[in-house]
Amino acid sequence: MLGQAAVKPGILAQLEAAVLAGLPVNADIASLPRAVWGNKKYIFESWASKKLARGRKSWVYLHGECVFEINANDVKIEEWWCCRRCDAKGRPERLWKAHSTTAVANHLDKYVSASYYLCPLPN
Ligand SMILES: [Zn+2]
Hints:
Blueprint: H1 11-21, E1 35-37, E2 40-44, H2 45-48, H3 50-54, E3 64-70, E4 76-83, H4 84-88, E5 96-97, H5 101-108
Antiparallel strand pairs: 1-2, 2-3, 3-4, 4-5
The chain binds zinc ion (ZN).
């Protein structure tokens, strides 16, 4: 392991592991697996809203995934964009409102090639 500290699986890492393990078919939110981070719980947006996920065109979605935060009663309470790179570093707790692509773009600006800007952001 070359002395690398083990990183706690982030929100996306937990959800992707759940996908690999197999999801229940036509499950409601209560029976879906969820990622737990701090005292909050998340599911992939695409599990609960297929229409929404398909409509996403901005390049920022190449660099992260949208998740729903769910409450103790398994009800969706907020939609977030989770940065794939921060998640892999074990720091997924900084989430962005899923529709604020400008704020997300500013975050990604630190490490995404300028060539991505050839694709215009949606209004
Ligand atoms: Zn990030």
